[in-house]
Amino acid sequence: MSDSNYTSTSFFLTGLPGLEAVHIWLSIPLCAMYVASLTGNSLILWVVRSEPSLHQPMYYFLSMLAVTDLGLSASTLPSMLTIYMLGLREVALDVCLAQLFFIHTFSIMESSVLLTMAFDRVVAISSPLRYGTILTSPRIASLGLAIMVRSIGLHIPAPIMLKQLPYCRNRLLSHSYCLHPDVMKLACADTHINSAYGLFVVLSTLGVDAVLIVLSYGLILHTVLSIASKTERLKALNTCVSHICSVLLFYTPMIGLSMIHRFGRWASPCSRVLLSYLHFLTPPVLNPVVYTIKTKQIRSRMLRLFRSDGAGIRDP
């Protein structure tokens, strides 16, 4: 059977190029990141659920972000750990397609949640007296449902379209997990439709979300600058710091990775992989840390939790 008629049933993932000899050691920080993400986001969910004073729109959106971060970690880290800990690089086609579906779906969910959190800050700063009447529980639930439908609906065609393509010759992926553009490049057929579809999804989700977030902060700055008191201006802006950090954690590596793929042909494969890791791994790990440090209610509730645990350990 010729190569052109051969359809591969598996792909091979890639770790950090040139560092294969120390992959087992690199698995230690990866495991630590996975544990940190699981622990931090689970604690955020538990604190918001158990503390009645946190049953407010801002913290409901934070819970959505924590769920999304857990999903993103669960989608990316398992295949990375099998590469670095066990040296297993082969992944079946169906498993690969399932992984890329969940990675891209949770990535769009994260962008969508960050957009809704920006809307939450606009309402809280621009219309504080109407905050509770605008962001009611049914509306928040509707926003959450819309985020799920949008993210899942847009990515259902991706694995179906990729499943129909023939794959031959080179089956080596350039990352430690399956991504739509990466898999598409290995097809031995015309992929213009797949490429156009992928571009449409990126522009209509990540692109639109980024523009709307910037516009939201334009409205916030316009409102804040109209406040006479400098103390009140700083207080209003301080409520946005955590969200701004999360936006930067999510979008900065993504923009850098996009620029490298298009203009940085000089960039080493290792730098591309590391930037990809920053994009997919750091937000789930650092978002809980940022919100714990910057949000007094969450920080005080977690301190009470650890103090009570410590007292229980000391008491017989």
Structure characterization notes:
There is one protein chain. This protein is mainly α and 316 residues long. It has a single domain (9-288), classed as Rhodopsin 7-helix transmembrane proteins (Rhopdopsin 7-helix transmembrane proteins), CATH 1.20.1070. 75% of the residues lie in helices and 2% in strands. It has helices spanning 23-50, 57-86, 93-126, 131-134, 137-155, 157-163, 180-184, 192-225, 230-238, 241-263, 269-294, 296-314; strands at 10-12, 90-92. A two-stranded antiparallel ribbon has the order 1-2. Helix 2 (57-86) packs antiparallel against helix 3, helix 2 packs antiparallel against helix 11 and helix 8 (192-225) packs antiparallel against helix 9. The longest helix has 34 residues, at 93-126. The protein is globular, with a radius of gyration of 22 Å. The chain starts with 9 loop residues before the first strand and ends with a helix. This is G-protein coupled receptors family 1 profile domain-containing protein.
The first-to-last residue Cα distance is 73 Å
Give the count of structural domains: 1
Quaternary structure annotation = single chain
Strand order of the largest sheet: 1-2
Number of strands: 2
Q: What is the CATH H-level superfamily?
A: Rhodopsin 7-helix transmembrane proteins
Shape category: globular
Low-confidence stretches: 1-8, 312-316
Report the biggest beta sheet as strand number plus sense, adding barrel if it closes. 2 strands, antiparallel
The count of helical stretches stands at: 12
Structural class: mainly alpha
CATH architecture: Up-down Bundle
Order of helices and strands: EHHEHHHHHHHHHH
**CATH class assignment:** Mainly Alpha
Radius of gyration: 22 Å
Q: Could you please say which CATH topology applies here?
A: Rhopdopsin 7-helix transmembrane proteins
Helix content: over 70%
What's the average pLDDT?
Answer: 86
Into which percentage range does the β-strand content fall?
under 5%
Organism: Myotis lucifugus
Function: Putative odorant or sperm cell receptor.
GO molecular function, one term: olfactory receptor activity
GO biological process, one term: cellular response to lipid
